[in-house]
Description:
This protein is mainly β.
Amino acid sequence: MRRRNFFLKLAAALVTLSVLATPALAQKKSKKDKQQPTTTGGISGRVRVDAGASAAGISVEVRQGETGVAEATTNAKGEFEFQGLAPGSYGLTLRKSGLQVGRMESVTVRAGKTVSLKDHLFLPADEGALALLRGSVFDAAGRSFAGARVELARVEADGSLKKLDSRVANVAGSFAFNLPPARARYRLTAKADGMEATTQDVDVEGAAIYRAALTLKPAAR
């Protein structure tokens, strides 16, 4: 009887040791898993564009040679990021309607690292795919008016205005805006100290050159 009780106590002790050891082993295994090195890396950056253009919605393709391996779209700030890329050398191709196609080569990705391109990517406007708004400001005598501030706004469907950009007329009274080719109506407003503000609407129908002329008259006293 005593022999039987001895074996029962021994079995119970072994079960207790097994239960106590299991969490410790699981914790040790989990810690070991966390310490395993990351085998992939990433690329991040921000795309800059010309004034008046939007950095949002630019397609960014990661490729090896000419073979695409991943693609993303920039956010409203022109930012993008790729993760899960195998270590190696990559190229980037950037595209958006109205902007020139951009390329960058020899971007080296290392395991466990995200290479930051910061804001070194710049896409200038593709003037062949834009509506080019060119204009001049004159005084009441028809002479060029330098230094006038010209504001650009889009006329929305409900008649409200969405301010987009502004320019200061140069010494020849000239100014320029690059616009998307989509059909839209824009309003130009010229202002200067001591002068009455003047406006002109311009209807854009597609990619072409559009001209505008605004005349400033002395403000009534």
